[in-house]
Amino acid sequence: MSVFSQEEKEENRGSVEFQVFRFTNKIRRLTSHLELHRKDYLSQRGLRKILGKRQRLLSYLSKKNRIRYKELISRLNIRESKTR
């Protein structure tokens, strides 16, 4: 189930949206892995690092372009970050 079309993938690999999309796929894959292997602490650490990277990208996008941020969040089905 790809959210991005093939043309979008080729053009915008460096875009914030594409990076968040890739991180979200990694997060979902690692989460399902950790449900089976609860004591895999290295994967837990990797998951936390990816979550942090995705969070930083999302906060950057929300500051730069709120509309694109809202669209991305709804498209990827992730929660909005808590604002401080």
What does this structure look like?
The protein has a single domain (9-76), classed as S15/NS1, RNA-binding (Helix Hairpins), CATH 1.10.287. By secondary structure, it is mainly α. 74% of the residues lie in helices and 0% in strands. The mean pLDDT is 89. Helix 2 (16-36) packs antiparallel against helix 3 and helix 3 packs antiparallel against helix 4.
Key traits:
Helix Hairpins, 84 residues, single chain
List how many beta strands DSSP finds: 0
Put simply, the count of helices is 4
> What is the CATH superfamily classification?
S15/NS1, RNA-binding
CATH class: Mainly Alpha
- Strand residue percentage: under 5%
Taken from the alpha-carbon principal axes, the silhouette is: elongated
Radius of gyration: 14 Å
Multimeric state: single chain
Mean of all residue-level pLDDT scores: 89
Approximate helicity band: over 70%
Cα(first) to Cα(last) distance is: 33 Å
- Residue stretches low in confidence (pLDDT < 50, at least 5 long) are none
- Total individual domains: 1
CATH topology: Helix Hairpins
Largest sheet features: none
SSE string, helices as H and strands as E: HHHH
- The CATH architecture designation is Orthogonal Bundle
Backbone structural class: mainly alpha
Subcellular location: Plastid, Chloroplast
Subunit structure: Part of the 30S ribosomal subunit.
Keywords: Chloroplast, Plastid, Ribonucleoprotein, Ribosomal protein
Main location: plastid
